[in-house]
Amino acid sequence: MPSSSSRRRRRRGRRRKKKEEEARDWADGLPLDAILAIFHKLGHADILMAADQVCATWRRATRDEPALWRRITVRGTEALSARINRGGLACAAVRRSAGQCEAFCSEYAGDDGFLMYLAEQASCLKSLRLISCLGVSNEGIEEATKEFPLLEELELSFCYNVTHEAYAAIGATCPQLKRFRLSKRSFYDSGGIRWKNNDDACGISKMHGLRSLQLFANNLTNEGLSTILDNCPNLEFLDIRHCFNIDMGDDSLRAKCSRIKMLRPPDDSTDDYDFDVYTPRRLPISPGFVRYYSVYSDPEYSMYSDEWTSEEFDDDDDDYSGPSRYEEDLDKYDNVLPRCMRTFLK
């Protein structure tokens, strides 16, 4: 009968063999082009938090191939960003680009501090897309874009702390800018003058080299759009969907728009719009009562609802504040992720 000591030795031997098998570089010999082709199918966050840890060959490829990080995308949801340090992921991705980053797209990952870091590390940046980055301010974006003389594309959708003053400054510091995108969640209208605002249009009109402009659910009027058209003579693509203060029946405006090669008017279809589309918020005021109109686009309802109940209001609120379906999975990351990657968890 085997002694207890021999059984322990066999167990230790099996464990050692298992560790050696786990440590084996199974991708050794796989062409680099094939590895990079795999990585290009993944998001950059996935590469940093998972693929980077598969084996030594994959790790070398992620760290030693700046071309993999030439076009960086770090996107997600608000609930996900509450648990994962997406700003840290973005910095790690930019650092691995070794100064070769030409395009950066960020959602819920970016503030003024990160923009300063990006400006230091990516002076050849040509495309910058910031989506729902509430930590970005006028001062931050203005200072950063001074370091991007080659910038051709800029998006500031749902970055509500960046205003028209910054748009004007960017127009002056980025003479190569050709594409600008500014989306808002939904169109607001109370029937009052305060909801007809051309400040954004005045700032954008300083971007004289624009060829493509998308303004979704903006409150500009015919006057503001005319200012843009007068000051951006090279404009070829114009998307003003859900900009319902604009009256395309105006003869003067239609004449100015005639040179636009691709025009998406306010009432055009939003089927190809890549963000959630909300029904316009209409708030007409009557004595002693304000009718609140439905926020969400829903074929089961008419576009405007004259009344609402507390239950309906609570249902809408639940859509924003309900628990994230990702939370359960996120709790597992603490145990699954290698220690070196746990820095990306908040």
Summarize the structure in words:
It comes from Oryza glaberrima. By secondary structure, this protein is α/β, with parallel strands linked by helices. It has a domain of 76 residues. It contains 14 helices and twelve strands. Strands 1-2-3-4-5-7-8-9 form an eight-stranded parallel beta sheet, covered by helices on one side. A two-stranded parallel sheet has the order 6-10. β8, α12 and β9 form a beta-alpha-beta unit. α7 packs parallel to α8. The longest helix has 20 residues. About 17% of the residues have low confidence.
Briefly note the structural class of the backbone. alpha/beta
Low-confidence stretches: 286-343
Helical run tally: 14
Strand order of the largest sheet: 1-2-3-4-5-7-8-9
* Biggest sheet record: 8 strands, parallel
Mean pLDDT: 79
Q: Quaternary status of these chains?
A: single chain
Distance between the termini: 53 Å
Strand content: 5-15%
Helix content: 25-40%
Organism: Oryza glaberrima (African rice)
Protein name: F-box domain-containing protein
